[in-house]
Structure formats: structure tokens, C-alpha cells
TrEMBL record:
The keyword Transport applies. The keyword Heme does not apply. Keywords: Signal, Transport. This is Extracellular solute-binding protein. Gene3D superfamilies: Periplasmic binding protein-like II (3.40.190.10). It holds the Pfam family SBP_bac_1.
Amino acid sequence: MRLQRWRRGRSGAAAAVLVLSVLALLGGCASGPVGPPTLTWYINPDDGGQAEIAKRCTDAAGGRYTIATSTLPRDSGDQRQELVRRLAANDSSIDIMSLDPPYIPEFAEAGFLAPLPPGTAARVSEGVVPSAIEGASWQGQLVTVPFWANTQLLWYRKSLVADMGLDLTRPVTWDQIIDAAVAKGTKVAAQGKRAESLMVWTNALIRSGGGQIITNPGESNPKLVQLGLTDPPAVEAARIMSKLAKSPAAPPAFSTADEDANSESLQAGEAAFMVNWPFVWSKVTKAAEEGSVPADVPNDYGWTLFPSVRPDLPSAPPYGGINLGVGHSSLHPDLAYAATECITSAQNTAYYFESNGNPSARVASYSDPAVLAKYPMAPVILQSLTQAKPRPQTAYYAEVSGGLQRTFHPPEAIVPGPTNQAAQDLILGVLRKDRLL
């Protein structure tokens, strides 16, 4: 009752003074120091390298911002789904995100990426391998920041290839290594599983033959997308895949073989050749240190460029890795892009290569003494990244990859020509909404 009588007894002027006093007090509290903004970086799982780089760049920012990391799912497709769901809901917590290159056109076309500030593109492109620039772009413009760039090499066991008559200091073709493996009674390990790895292999073969899966990359209208899956380079790619899959050089369970299975096959000496990413080197050296393989096995590893399709054309090795995007709903896009410049510096990407085994997108990292000491094949990785080509750049990548995986699997069932036509018909039908995957 006291409060009611006080309210009734106060004049309007006195009440107004009280309200203003309260607002002034609240305003004074709100104007106090709030500290630097925290930028959230959604990272793919690794061995702690991205978290360490986040700490380094927080320290280097001098109080302008701090970087916190949030880990995405391990599977690339699951990473995409989580990011798409959050970005479609205008989640402002996504300041920076580690993106698989094939999804960049989709994110750019959907408007999920904040535009690069003036001058940023030139700075983050300087000294970067060409394949990473191409993979970070959409419709001719850089839309993400190259971070680390991956590629596949041709790995081999020196002891098993010593008397095959191949000069592995020079480029070799797929036909050469398949024929040599058959004659020797050994295997050629490649990824035949129905998964993204099959798309990676198929695309690399087509690009190495001078073709493309999508002949008008950058087309945003699905009904106007044109495919080159029935062109001669794609038919030749199908021939090579079929030849290996049906030959004695194909590993057991070839149609379910992934990167890890192939790595084990080379480690065990079951395969003389293998196409795979550089992680296999860290894997075999660790196995030797732990005693799960003989200590001299790493010394028996050799490496060279991804095999050619034609002797008169250099190979176009697979390109992979991670680029950094800034979310369109970030409250601090300029600071987020400033942070990406720190994250992708030559020093930090060399550290990430040496510590986590993920090759840098920056050329300068390949002359870093710590990198060269741990990865003696670094010069070949750099050469491979210079020749590498991305997978098809399209906002409809999931449909293209899914359709190709369905028709090109299992590899031993590939019929060059008819399989190519079936893949082209399915993908175009899906893009035109006439068929379903």
C-alpha cells in the first residue's frame, strides 16, 4: 500500500525526473568498457593446429578482437549441412568458417558469404598457388580466402618398382603403371569406393585428359548447365578406371577402397603404387615410430606427380584443402577478414603444414626449413598444386557429384561410353528436375 500511495502522490514532473535519473544510470552502466569483440571461427577437426593459430592471431591483434573456435562435424557433408542450416537462419555467430572448396560456389550463390573488403583480395592472393585461387573463387571473383591446399601424389614402394623399367623421375601414365603392376604381380591402389573420393579420382582423370565435367562452369541456371561427360577425355577417363578395376592390379575389395585402406595397402607392401593425399607420409612415419611397421618402411617410400592420362599432356592432380569464408550475418565482417589475413599468413600456414600435415596454399611455406625437414616431398607437393585443378565449380555440386558416384560405381562395371552417357543423362535430368538421385 505504501508504494501505491507514493505513486499516487508524486507529481508528473517528479516522476519524469525519476525516470530520467534511472535512464541516466542505466546509460552509464551500458557505456562502460565491453572489451574486444569475439570472432567465432568454425573449424574442421584437426590436431589442434587451428586453435593454436586462433591464439596466435588473437595475440597479434593487440586487443582489436579475440578468436574463439567451434568445431564442426568430421564428415565434409555434415559440415556443409550444419553451416547451411545456421547461415540460412542468419546466425550472426558465424564470423569465420573453414570451407571445403566444392561448396564455395553454392555458398556464394546463396548469398551466405560476406563480400571481401577493398584490397583484401589482392593481399590474400599474393604468393598463393594457382589451384587455390581458382578453388576460392566463384564466377571469376575471389569470394573466400585460401588457407591450406591439398593435392594427391603418386606414391610407390622403391623396392617393388626397382626392376619395372619405369623412370619415375619423369611423368608416367596410368597405362604404364597399371601394365607394370600387372607384369610384376602387384597392385595399384586408388579410391574405388562410392564416396566423394570417387568423384575426386574421376574429375582428375578427365581434367588430365584436357576435358571438364562441366563445360560452362559458373552457370547459375541449372537448366543451362552443360556437361562434358560424353566428350573424348571423359570416355578415356572411364576406360582407365575400367582397365584398372578389371585388371589383376586392382586391390581386393576395390569398390570399397578409400584413402585409409589404400594407405594401409602401400604400408603393407601389398600395392606398389598408390594415389593419395600427403597424410600418408605422417601415417607411415608414425607407424614406424610406434613399431607397427618395420622402421625402414618410410625409407622405401617414393613419390612423384599424379599419373598422366596422355604422355603429351601434364596431369591435372586433384585439388583439395580448406578456404576461409566470412558469414554474411557476422556483426564484424571487416575484423573477421582481418583475422583471415593473419590466419593464412605464410608463417601460420607453414606452422600448420609442419604440425598438422596440411599443405599450405602459400608458395613461401615450401621453403620453410621445418616443413622441408619433416616433409621431404614438399617440392613435389608444390609442383602438384601448381598443376592441380578443382572439382567442378557449380552451385549444384551435390547433384553433380551424387549423380556421377551413382553411375561410375562400382568401377568394375564401368563401360566406357555407355556409362558416360548414363551419368550425363542422370545429372542433367536431376538439374532439370526431371529425375531424382
